[in-house]
Amino acid sequence: MKISHLSKSIKKYPVLKDISFSLNKGEIVGLVGRNGTGKTTLFRTITNFYQKDSGDVLIDSVSIYQKTDLKETIFYLDDQYNFLNNQSPKTIESYYSELYQFFDHEKYVGLLKKYKFDMDLSIDRNSKGTQALFKVILAFSCHANYYILDEPFDGLDLIIRKKVISLILNEVSINQASVLISSHNLLELENIVDHVLFLQDGMISRTYNLEEIKERTKKVQMVFKKKEIPSIVKENCQIIQIQGRVIIGIFEQLEDDLYEAILATDPVLFEEVPLTLEDLFSSRFTSEIDYQLFH
After folding, report:
1. How far apart are alpha carbons 200 and 281 in whole angstroms?
2. At the N or C end, where does the chain have fewer CB atoms within 10 A?
C-alpha cells in the first residue's frame, strides 16, 4: 500500500498535509504523535471514512478510489465506532462475511472458542478488554491484506494485551499481513514495530527504522561542573529532561570529533544509556519550556 500526498481539512482547518509513506507486505508500522495531531483522521481518510481533499491511496499501483473492490483488502479497527457492539459474535459474522468475501469462518470460531467467547452473548456484555480482543479476532478473520489498528492496547490489562499482541504477530508472521498501528503505549509499540512514523503538525516529520536508529542515535546522561549547559551540547543535542544537575539528551550523530570536543569541557559525567522509542518521541516533541520544569 502506498499513501501518496494525502491531504485533508476539517471545517477548513488543515489536519493532514501532503502525507506520503508505504506499508509493505509482512511489516508492522507504528504511527505516533501527540493527541490531536491527526492520527485518527489519517486512518479514516486512508479508509475513506473521511473523503480526502487530495492525494491517493494505491494498492499495487492501483487507486482504491478507482477500483473500489480493493477496499476489501483493508480492515480498519476504529475503537470509536461500536455500532455492532449490542450484537452477538454470530450476528456480527453475518455482516462481515458479506463485506469480506474471504472471511474465514473456521478461524473466527476457532479463536472465539480458544478465548472462551459465548457466540450468542452480545459483545457489549463483555469487559472492555474482552471487547478489544474480540475486535482483533474479527479483524484477522476477515482475511484482509492491510490492517489499520487505532489504539488497540488502550485500557487493556497485561493478560489481554499479550493476547492481542500475539494475534497481531501471528497474523504478520503466518499470513504476511501488513499492519499500521497507533498507540500511546510506546513500550508495547517498540517491541513489535519495524518502522515508526512521527506525525507532527499534520505531516510525517520523521520516519525511523528502530534497529538502524538505535545504532546511530545515542541517549546520554550528562553532568557539568557549571550549571550552564555548554554551547556545543546545546547545538548538537536534543535535551529531553533535566533532573537536578543531571541532563538527559539525544544525539542524532555523536561522531568522534564531537565526542572529544564535549569531553574537552571536562564533564563530571557523560555516559550513554539505553535508547527507547519513548526517548525518540520526547526528542521530537519536548521543548525547552517542558524540561525547565524539572529544575
Report:
1. 11
2. C
- Into which CATH architecture does domain 217-294 fall? 2-Layer Sandwich (3.30)
CATH homologous superfamily of 2-210:
P-loop containing nucleotide triphosphate hydrolases (3.40.50.300)
> Which 8-state DSSP code applies to residue 245?
T
Global pTM value: 0.84
Sign of CA dihedral 235, 240, 242, 245: negative
Q: What are the tens digits of pLDDT across the range 21-46?
A: 999 999 999 999 988 889 999 999 99
Residue 266, beta-bridge partner list: none
Angle, in degrees to the nearest 10, between helices 105-114 and 128-141: 160
**Neighbour tally for 126: CB within 10 Å:** 17
Helix (H, G, I), strand (E, B), or coil: what is residue 119? coil
> Each residue of 99-140: pLDDT tens digit?
999 999 999 999 999 999 999 999 999 998 999 999 999 999
Tell me how far apart the alpha carbons of residues 108 and 113 are, in angstroms, rounded to a whole number.
Answer: 9
Alpha-carbon distances of 170 from 6, 86, 101, 289, rounded to whole Å: 30, 28, 22, 43
Q: How far apart are CA 284 and CA 203, in angstroms?
A: 13
C-alpha 214/C-alpha 149 separation (Å) is: 25
Please check whether residue 65 is in contact with residue 57, taking contact to mean a CB–CB distance below 8 angstroms: yes
* Cα–Cα separations (whole angstroms), residue 273 to 220, 265, 282: 6, 20, 15
Domain segments of the chain: what residues? 2-210, 217-294
Angle subtended at Cα 287 by Cα 284 and Cα 289, rounded to the nearest 5 degrees: 160
